[in-house]
Amino acid sequence: MPKILIIEDDTAFCQMLQKFLTKNDFVVSISYSIKEAEELLAKSTFDIILSDVRLPKGNGVTLLPQVKRDSPATQVILMTGYAEVKTAVNAIKKGAFDYISKPFTPEQILSVIKDALNAKVMEPKASRHSSKSNNRQEKQAGFLKGQGEKSKKLEQYVELVAPTNMSVLLTGESGTGKEVTANAIHQASKRRDQPFVAVDCGAIPKEIATSEFFGHVKGSFTGAIDDKKGHFETANGGTLFLDEVGNLSYEHQVQLLRAIQERKIKRVGSTKEIELDIRIIAATNENLSDAAEEGEFREDLYHRLNEFSIEVPSLRDRQDDILLFADYFLAKANSELDKNILEFSDETKRILQDYDWPGNLREMKNVIKRAALFSETETMFPNALAEEVIEGANKHEKANFSKSDYEKELILRALKQTNFNKSKAAKLLQITRKTLYNKINQYQLNV
Ligand SMILES: Nc1ncnc2c1ncn2[C@@H]1O[C@H](COP(=O)(O)OP(=O)(O)OP(=O)(O)O)[C@@H](O)[C@H]1O
User: Fold this and answer.
1) Is the residue at 171 inside a domain?
2) Distance from residue 112's CA to the centre of ligand 1 (Å)
3) Nearest CA among 100, 108, 63 for reference residue 84
4) Is residue 241 a part of any domain in this protein?
5) How many Å lie between the centroid of ligand 1 and the Cα of residue 310?
6) From the alpha carbon of 364, which atom of ligand 1 is closest?
7) What is the CATH number of the domain that holds 11?
8) Where is 348: in which H helix or E strand?
9) How many whole angstroms from 61 Cα to the centroid of ligand 1?
10) Is residue 275 scored above 80 in pLDDT?
């Protein structure tokens, strides 16, 4: 049985977690401080260390170097509060396996422990994650909560709607994290112990879509060699996530609407009705409301799906979080590629912030992983980045630069016009005197 050490100063929480994990067939030791943990670590080894970040007299990260040195196979998972995400991301850079934000659900903690144990079995580290980095399960494994305004709003919406049974329509550009958000809603709902089934509606061939959604019985059509459950039945009790829902054919839109309204389905070739208790979350990166108005998407289905809508923001609208996400993906890339890149150079940071990220988080994840592969130093310099990212960012910078030239020109003109009277010039420019002084300093105007 795998051995786990919990390091957590909240004694009640620690004991509760110990009880829960023991019930789930782990051998669990606990310590309420770093000192106690060190004593236990001197006596025995553990498969997993589950440590709070903030502990009296130190934090969970301080133990990492020692653990990695004395027992490299031990995986460290950090438990963080909201504000400690950055520390946790840094800890991943130093070799922690992952972090989990408090409060978490029993499934979430079991899932991250399972991942950590699997990663161990699959040593060396480079093969920790499947190379098919886009498979659906992996998409759900890592989730970083941003800290900027847009990210907080997104999270508020998730928290607000999760406990209800409302259908949710997630809109947003490709790669913004709609599926990850759908999963977060499921995990925060009462259905979290039940299945979360994600279906890419754009990827199902039209001819087999009915059977894919509703299942079939043996012999109902050529090729139906066995009874088969459809996605609805598999998701029963839980959440069905319909990705790219705008790609459904008219016929399948009708079938879906009926299933959602009647809360019953029949497998293809069967007369037996199956009762459904399903929460639907749909996602689209096109404007479904326009499509409904133009008759390309059934309006009644659109309203059924859109009981609550959430727009998942593009990465360029999450400026405050760009470097946080970049750090996170760098940490992931380090662990997947067995690299040890500690930071981005200032110019690399500037490029990451100036680039537009048309492919959003998915693009950033790929760009950083590729750049990590090319980087040979502990600091990532721009030459590791793809050409198009650098060019894209520089175009942006030029635009900014010309904007600043223009601004400088305006200020000089206003000053001349007002005979270098700064109060009058500020008034003319419709800015405060203080801002004008700042700008004069910024542009080093000799006035
Ligand atoms: N909050 C997040 N934290 C960490 N990784 C994230 C987050 N959001 C998205 N990602 C990563 O970005 C990638 C794209 O996410 P996801 O598949 O959820 O986007 P999507 O909007 O559903 O894309 P599409 O429109 O193409 O279906 C995934 O690899 C996912 O792991």
Assistant:
1) yes
2) 18
3) 100
4) yes
5) 15
6) 12
7) 3.40.50.2300
8) helix 346-354
9) 27
10) yes
Which residue intervals of 228-298 are DSSP H helices? 231-234, 250-262, 288-293
- Separation of CA 47 and ligand 1 centre (Å): 30
Residue ranges around ligand 1 (CB below 6 Å): 139, 142-144, 172, 174-180, 243, 283, 285, 361-362, 365
User: Could you tell me the pTM of the whole model?
Assistant: 0.64
**Predicted local distance difference test score (pLDDT) of residue 214:** 95
Residues 397 and 305 both lie in one domain: no
- Is pLDDT of 260 > 90? yes
**DSSP-assigned letters across all residues of 200-235:** EGGGS-GGGHHHHHH-B-TTSSTT--S-B--HHHHT
Q: Tokens standing for 136?
A: 């659906």
Q: Quick check: 73 pLDDT over 70?
A: yes
Reported as half-sphere exposure (CB side, CA atoms, 13 A), residue 294 has a value of: 7
**Closest residue (by CA) to atom 15 of ligand 1?**
177
Cα dihedral 21, 25, 26, 27, rounded to 10, equals 110
DSSP E strands: which ranges in 68-210?
Answer: 75-80, 98-101, 168-171, 196-200
Give pLDDT, residue 142.
Answer: 63
Our mutation pick for probing the ligand 1 site, out of 89, 133, 179, counting the most ligand atoms within 8 A of Cβ, is 179
Residue 172 backbone zone (phi > 0: left; psi -120 to 50: alpha; other: beta)? left
- Check if the beta carbon of residue 180 is closer than 8 Å to that of residue 140: yes
Q: Which domain holds residue 117?
A: 3-123
Ligand 1 center–CA 2 separation, angstroms: 31
Number of separate domains in the chain: 3
Residue 114: count of CB within 10 angstroms of its CB: 12
**Nearest atom within ligand 1 for CA of residue 143:** 3
Tell me how far the alpha carbon of residue 276 lies from the centroid of ligand 1, in angstroms. 28
What ipTM was predicted for this assembly? 0.98
Q: Is residue 90 within a helix (H) or strand (E), and if so which, with residue range?
A: helix 85-93
Residue 8 shares a structural domain with residue 76: yes
C-alpha to C-alpha distance for 417 and 407, rounded to whole angstroms: 15
Q: Best mutation site among 112, 139, 241 for ligand 1, i.e. most ligand atoms within 8 A of its Cβ?
A: 139
Is the predicted pLDDT of residue 94 greater than 90, yes or no? no
Tell how far the Cα of 184 is from the centroid of ligand 1, in angstroms: 12
